[in-house]
């Protein structure tokens, strides 16, 4: 048993009247002990439940992110001579995936990368408590298996294609080791919020994170301020993802040095209003996304256009949302986004091909 961890657990788990928030340094220490499992399983589970009930503070979230940065993976900045050396976009979506609405995040990434803006994503496998379809499976349905890549290979893929993925089981096994506790406690711990705030990319970037509940957005603002993250976007997205809804006004916060904007974006103003597309049969989702990339005109295609246009605008490709939508339409209609998928698929496969040596 870790006596040091027990003292920190007592602080957060003493009840509504006597519990005490951890300092940033204490939260970092507690997170390190959980990631390395210096703390016992009983202590880790108790901490997760107590912390959820107490609710984390911005100092605690910042400390947890400090530990993630110290112990976790970081993709190096894209090489200066790469075609994708622009300011990157990091898409942070809930690791427990989607279970009700059809995701278009991979199409957003492909369109944005086709326009020359690099995109970094991160996540793991099916995860409690939702057990929804995660990003890694969406890419697999599109013919891209990102699971085997080392972090070095993921960086190579980012340099070559403008698309990078940090995969929890392969690149951050310490964090993956805590997933089992989510199933056992039956609730999302504060780590689920930390994953939305985490950016595993070292180069200049804008972090886009989805959220559901307003307090999450407020936590994000305070945590970003403490950690010096000045470029960020918060999206009240579909199931807390980075995907903007079409069935309601999109609520978005955008922060850049010296400027913070609150955006209320109405799909009907751009002819894109409509119900949000249901997830339906998971096994056909890849085919539906491929149909969008091939120029389909389904409701899912409108959702993809709405999102790709927004992120092209935020990525600096267009000066307005209308301009971003027009550029997204062009990239989809001309097949450039589909070509980016084919490039991503081929480059990913090449990295995992065994070397063949010839003997003279």
Number of domains: 2
Number of E-state strands: 7
Radius of gyration: 20 Å
Could you list the spans in which at least 5 consecutive residues all have pLDDT below 50?
355-360
Order of adjacent strands in the largest pleated sheet: 3-2-1-4-5-6-7
Strand-residue proportion: 5-15%
GO molecular function: glycosyltransferase activity
Domain Glycosyl transferase family 3 N-terminal: 6-68
Keywords: Amino-acid biosynthesis, Aromatic amino acid biosynthesis, Glycosyltransferase, Transferase
InterPro entries: Anthranilate_Pribosyl_Tfrase (IPR005940), Glycosyl_Trfase_fam3 (IPR000312), Glycosyl_Trfase_fam3_N_dom (IPR017459), Glycosyl_Trfase_fam3_N_dom_sf (IPR036320), Nuc_phospho_transferase (IPR035902)
Offer a few descriptive terms.
360 residues; Pyrimidine Nucleoside Phosphorylase, Chain A, domain 2; 7-stranded mixed β-sheet; disordered C terminus
Short description:
The protein is an alpha/beta fold and 360 residues long. The chain is 47% helix and 11% strand. It contains 16 helices and 7 strands.
Would you spell out the secondary-structure blueprint of this structure?
Layout: H1 3-12, H2 24-35, H3 41-54, H4 58-71, E1 88-92, H5 105-114, E2 119-123, H6 135-141, H7 151-161, E3 163-167, H8 168-171, H9 173-176, H10 179-185, H11 191-197, E4 205-210, H12 214-227, E5 232-235, E6 250-256, E7 259-265, H13 285-293, H14 299-314, H15 321-333, H16 336-351
Parallel strand pairs: 1-2, 1-4, 2-3, 4-5
Antiparallel strand pairs: 5-6, 6-7
């Amino acid at each position: 048993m870790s006596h040091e961890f027990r003292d920190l657990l007592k602080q957060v788990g003493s009840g509504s009247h006597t519990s005490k928030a951890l300092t940033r340094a204490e939260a970092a220490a507690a997170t390190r002990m959980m990631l390395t499992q210096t703390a016992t399983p009983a202590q880790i589970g108790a901490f997760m439940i107590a912390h959820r009930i107490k609710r984390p503070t911005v100092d605690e979230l910042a400390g947890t992110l400090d530990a993630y940065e110290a112990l976790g993976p970081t993709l190096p900045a894209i090489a200066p001579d790469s075609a994708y050396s622009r300011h990157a976009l990091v898409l942070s979506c809930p690791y427990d995936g989607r279970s009700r609405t059809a995701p278009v995040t991979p199409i957003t990434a492909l369109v944005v990368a086709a326009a020359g803006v690099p995109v970094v994503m991160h996540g793991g496998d099916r995860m409690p408590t939702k057990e929804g379809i995660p990003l890694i499976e969406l890419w697999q349905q599109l013919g891209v298996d990102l699971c085997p890549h080392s972090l070095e290979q993921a960086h190579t893929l980012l340099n070559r294609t403008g698309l990078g993925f940090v995969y929890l089981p392969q690149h951050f096994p310490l964090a993956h080791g805590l997933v089992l506790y989510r199933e056992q406690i039956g609730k999302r711990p504060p780590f689920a919020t930390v994953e939305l705030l985490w950016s595993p990319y070292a180069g200049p970037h804008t972090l886009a994170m989805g959220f559901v509940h307003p307090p999450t957005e407020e936590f994000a603002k305070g945590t970003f301020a403490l950690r010096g993250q000045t470029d960020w976007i918060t999206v009240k997205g579909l199931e807390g993802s980075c995907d903007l809804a079409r069935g309601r006004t999109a609520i978005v916060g955008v922060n850049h040095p010296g400027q913070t904007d609150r955006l209320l974006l109405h799909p009907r103003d751009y002819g894109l209003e409509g119900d949000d597309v249901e997830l339906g049969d998971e096994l056909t989702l890849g085919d539906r996304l491929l149909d969008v990339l091939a120029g389909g005109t389904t409701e899912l295609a409108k959702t993809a256009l709405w999102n790709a246009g927004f992120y092209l605008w935020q990525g600096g490709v267009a000066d307005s949302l209308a301009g971003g939508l027009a550029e997204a339409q062009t990239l989809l209609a001309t097949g450039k986004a589909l070509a980016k998928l084919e490039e991503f698929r081929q480059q990913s496969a090449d990295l995992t091909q065994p070397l063949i040596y010839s003997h003279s």
